[in-house]
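FAQ

Q: What does a record look like?
A: Structure on top, sequence underneath. For example:
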């Protein structure tokens, strides 16, 4: 057991800390050289190197970043030193991911490795709040007169279910969104503490000495609270943080600092806050509240007009875009300022008259209206420091904004405190040539990862899988341009898609960059008499049903976009062909365009790195173990050899599969020569 007594000098404490870490390093060596082989674990050099480098970085007081390819076993690569650290130092450790699938996998991995290390720490799996049932909201919804109440919901509640995954997959996401937790607080949710699982988890997080498995959103919120001098969401003694799927970190930090202004919500807040005032005094605030409502409607009408204009005038991608550009014109800025001023006046007026009733304490609506007013006032005061955009919300438009300096915020939260941060992902680099700083350049640019003595970049750990023996990439140079000749590209792209699907007999995941393309291709394929079933990604967060059908029907074809590029893992012959229907260059997006606006070379410094990282993620869906085999087909001419695009060499060099062809005949011969084609046993 290690204790750092207060009367020890800083030098003595540092000496003791390094001695403890060196002892942990010896235990790591013993595990990989003796314990793991004795229990049947295969030796993986990259995994061991990763573990040793983590300890070395901690000894030298450095943050650490490493790209660990698929098959390295990166989870065990950091869990072994993390668990030994927790056992020796007696302080909690936080492991944060960006997907539920990895969180749940880590829960299993931790419990697999704990007995081998002779340690039994408390392990807390903390998903985002929307994954848990809110008993209060559920009761309110069930008691509504016109509520549609599925049997799956009532049956689940009767059985004591509290997590989304416990309820039937057939429960509509729209219903779950009416009964899950939306705005948790330890103070306001106290009345439900004895029966609320999420309340229990949040309470555990504050005092645990063990291992916390959470998402990057919870971790970022925790670090932001610590920076403000608050207690944080997790035990503040945690001085070791691991961020897996770290290629998403800047997006998660941006999301945590993003504010939203929704017309329906803010009008509802004004209405609810007005009702908190005694009826005799309400007429005193009507002038301000009516004016605020009028200006709110005027402003949001202008947002909807901007959004519709962009949909009408833009290319195909914007039909289903989530984000649209706020035009920033003098007229739009003046409408925004006018609305914010009116909301502030209404909020102040409501607070004044609510304070006359000393028996009626301010309640949630007036507090939230005041909070929204203050946030908007800050936006107006520092408008040049914020990035503004519009998001579609059903048929409505939302105003969304966040600070422009996400890089500086990420650096301050993750690399400027007392904790050491370990970051890893299968896709952190955007190039394979040059110095480590050049290979990790886009990641560094997005996160502000320190490149001085406080940060350590590791040599990327390539996947051990035999890619070139087990897989081949097909690419083409004879199709229309995907954006400039979009209609012709869809028509001829579908024909080429049918050619490659014929080679694999279905068994394919087809990845799209735009929902509009996916739906158009699905519509065409659905009208054909094909020898395999065509499935399409469903709306909502749960994809279990369609993914299970794809796995079970081994000849089916699954069309997907968004999270399907990195959020699914399907081993065996069900997925023998990954089709990239267009290179995943980012669609028009205010955030990407802002990054491009401050880059020296927008194409090569922003758009290409974004594309390469996502392309690597998509291709990574094919080979998930040492026996997986199959093909990757890129339906896009922009990786042609002649004439090459500027990004030709850097893209091809970044891909794990070097075995490639432009010949469909060669692709067919390769596919039919694969070992798995000669037996009926699933790989």
């Amino acid at each position: 057991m290690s204790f750092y007594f207060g009367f020890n000098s800083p030098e003595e404490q540092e000496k003791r800390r390094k001695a403890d870490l060196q002892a942990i390093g010896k235990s790591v060596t013993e595990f990989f050289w003796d314990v793991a082989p004795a229990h049947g674990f295969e030796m993986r050099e990259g995994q061991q190197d990763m573990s040793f480098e983590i300890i070395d970085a901690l000894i030298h007081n450095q943050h650490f970043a490493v790209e660990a390819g698929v098959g390295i076993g990166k989870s065990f690569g950091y869990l072994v030193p993390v668990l030994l650290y927790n056992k020796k130092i007696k302080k909690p450790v936080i492991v944060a991911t960006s997907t539920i699938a990895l969180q749940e996998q880590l829960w299993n991995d931790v419990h697999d490795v704990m007995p081998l290390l002779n340690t039994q720490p408390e392990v807390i799996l903390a998903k985002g709040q929307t994954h848990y049932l809110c008993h209060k909201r559920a009761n309110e919804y069930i008691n509504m007169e016109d509520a549609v109440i599925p049997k799956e919901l009532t049956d689940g509640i009767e059985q004591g279910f509290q997590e989304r995954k416990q309820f039937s997959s057939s429960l509509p996401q729209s219903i779950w969104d009416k009964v899950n937790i939306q705005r948790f607080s330890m103070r306001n949710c106290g009345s439900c503490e004895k029966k609320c699982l999420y309340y229990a988890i949040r309470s555990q997080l504050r005092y645990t000495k063990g291992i916390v498995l959470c998402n990057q959103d919870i971790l970022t919120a925790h670090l932001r609270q610590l920076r403000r001098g608050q207690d944080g969401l997790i035990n503040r003694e945690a001085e070791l943080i691991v961020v897996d799927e770290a290629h998403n970190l800047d997006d998660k930090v941006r999301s945590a600092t993003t504010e939203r202004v929704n017309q329906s919500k803010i009008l509802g807040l004004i209405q609810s806050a007005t009702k908190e005032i005694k009826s005799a005094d309400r007429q005193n605030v009507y002038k301000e509240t009516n004016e605020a409502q009028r200006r709110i409607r005027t402003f949001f009408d202008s947002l909807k007009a901007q959004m519709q204009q962009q949909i009408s005038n833009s290319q195909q991608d914007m039909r289903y875009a989530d984000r649209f550009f706020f035009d920033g014109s003098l007229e739009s800025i003046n409408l925004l300022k006018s609305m914010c001023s009116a909301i502030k006046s209404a909020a102040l007026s409501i607070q004044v008259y609510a304070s006359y009733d000393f028996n009626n304490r301010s309640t949630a609506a007036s507090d939230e209206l005041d909070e929204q007013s203050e946030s908007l006032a800050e936006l107006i005061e520092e408008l040049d420091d914020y990035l503004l955009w519009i998001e579609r919300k059903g048929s409505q438009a939302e105003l969304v904004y966040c600070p422009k300096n996400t890089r500086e915020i990420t650096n301050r939260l993750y690399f400027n405190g007392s904790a050491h941060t370990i970051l890893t992902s299968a896709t952190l680099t955007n190039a394979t040539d040059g110095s480590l700083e050049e290979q990790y350049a886009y990641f560094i640019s997005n996160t502000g990862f320190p490149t001085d003595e406080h940060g350590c970049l590791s040599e990327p750990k390539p996947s051990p899988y035999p890619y070139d023996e087990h897989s081949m990439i097909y690419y083409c140079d004879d199709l229309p341009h995907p954006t400039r000749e979009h209609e012709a590209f869809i028509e001829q792209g579908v024909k080429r898609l049918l050619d490659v699907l014929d080679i694999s007999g279905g068994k394919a995941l087809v990845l799209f960059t735009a929902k509009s393309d996916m739906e158009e291709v699905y519509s065409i394929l659905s009208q054909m008499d094909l020898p395999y079933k065509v499935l399409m990604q469903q709306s909502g967060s749960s994809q279990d049903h369609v993914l299970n059908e794809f796995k079970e029907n081994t000849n089916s074809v699954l069309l997907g976009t968004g999270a399907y590029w990195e959020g699914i893992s399907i081993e065996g012959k069900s997925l023998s062909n990954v089709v990239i229907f267009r290179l995943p260059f980012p669609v028009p997006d205010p955030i990407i365009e802002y990054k491009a606006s401050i880059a020296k070379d927008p194409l090569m410094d922003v758009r290409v790195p974004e594309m390469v990282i996502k392309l690597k993620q998509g291709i990574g869906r094919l080979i998930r173990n040492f026996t997986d085999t199959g093909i990757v087909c890129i339906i896009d001419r922009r990786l042609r050899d002649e004439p090459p695009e500027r990004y030709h060499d850097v893209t091809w060099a970044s891909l794990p599969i070097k075995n490639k062809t432009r010949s469909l005949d060669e692709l067919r011969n390769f596919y039919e020569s694969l070992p798995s084609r000669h037996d009926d046993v699933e790989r």
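Q: Is there anything notable about this one?
A: The chain has 25 helices and 18 strands.
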